[in-house]
Each structure stands twice: as structure tokens, then as C-alpha cells.
Amino acid sequence: MCVTKSFYLWLLQVVGLLGLLALSLWLALRPRSPNYTIVNFSVPAVNDSNVSDHGIIQYELVIENPNKDSGIYYDDIFLIFYHGPDAVGNNTIPSFYQGRDKSRQVLDHLDVETRIWRALRNEILNATAELRVDLSTKVKYKTWGIKSKHHGINREGKIPIGKDGKIANKKKKVKLRHASKKLNRRSSRFL
Fold it and tell me: Which residues, 6 or more positions from 140, have their beta carbon under 8 angstroms from its beta carbon?
């Protein structure tokens, strides 16, 4: 009888040890979401006396993979810029793969909707303009040669714009954070 109890105790210890090992591996290899930061933003020719009917927004987006063990496969990344409730413009970054612990810079521009440009330009000249940027995409993580399922990512950020048409905050960059529940429902139609 004593042998049977020690066998069951041994089996319980092995199962407990395997459970702890599996939990430790899961915690160590669980991928983290990528970081998105707008590091350069400008609205050129905002001080030009010749008021045109449309404008251009130039931006530089840095996409950082913080994972040391996982690469990331990105689907198309959708960026939408808003001025109040109105969409100023949108842009799509084509799908790509990003290796472990790498960063990617995306330099791009978008044309401002004609009906919104005049109001936006006036607010920039008064240094009261603020744009909101929404980013939505889906990613797959690749860890040890195994691809995960798709994970939806929605981020947003507010960009204060100074009189010079550039980012007005002290850090001169805007980190995109988790989006609100309302945005998740609205932007899921793009994914």
C-alpha cells in the first residue's frame, strides 16, 4: 500500500512540474504588441498667403517590434486622420514582415480633403488645431518557426499642431495608444 501512495505522489509531482514548466515557457515566449510612434509630422506651406483649396500632410511613422524571440507579419495597415468628427484623409501601408527586435520607418503623405482644408488651416494659424490618428491592422507572430493566429490591433493618438504646422508638444513625437471601444467597433470594418 505504501508503494502505491508514493507512486501517485510522484505522478502528482511530475504533472505539477510539467505545468509550471509550461506556464514559464508561455510567459517567456508570449509576444508583445508592436509600438507605433509618429516622430515627424508637418503641414507644409500653411503660412503661404496664397490659400489653395487643398493641403498635404507629411508624416513619419516608426513601427517597432519589441519582441526578441518573435517576428511579425503585418497585414495592410490603415491610417485615418480626423479633425473633429471629419476624416481629413486616409492612407494604407502595404503588408510586410518585420524581424525580431527591428524598427521600420514609414515616410508618407496624404492629401487633405478639400472641404476640411480651410477650417484646418485657420486652426493651425491660430495654434489650436489638433488631429486624431487611428491605426488599425492585423498581425501574425512567428515564434520558433510557428505562426500564430491573426491578432487585431487598433491604436489612436492626438496630434497637437503648432503655428508652424509641426507637432506642438515638448517631445515632438506622438505614441499611438490602445484605442477606445467605440473606435474598435468603427475601425473593425477595415480589417
Answer: 72, 73, 147, 148, 149, 150, 151
For residue 1 the three cell numbers come to 500500500
Whether the Cβ atoms of residue 98 and residue 74 lie closer than 8 Å to each other: yes
Digit-coded pLDDT (tens) for 81-127: 998 898 888 999 999 999 988 999 999 999 887 788 888 888 888 87
Confidence check: pLDDT of 1 > 50: no
Give the Cα separation of 111 and 160 in Å (integer).
19
What is the distance between the alpha carbons of residues 135 and 13, in angstroms, rounded to a whole number? 47
Identify the weakest region by mean pLDDT among 45-59, 65-79, 84-98, 133-147. Answer: 45-59
DSSP string, 71-115: EEEE-PEEEEEEETTEEEEEEEEPPEEE-TT-EEEEEEEEEPPHH
Return the number of other C-beta atoms located less than 10 Å from residue 145's C-beta.
6
Please answer whether residues 136 and 154 qualify as being in contact, where contact means their C-beta atoms are separated by less than 8 angstroms.
yes
| Burial grade of 8 (CB within 10 A; 0-12, 13-18, 19 or more) | exposed
Q: How far is CA 111 from CA 27, 58, 133, in A?
A: 44, 9, 15
Helix runs in the chain, H state only? 2-29, 114-125, 181-187
Residue position matching grid coordinates 506622438:
174
End-to-end Cα distance, the chain? 61
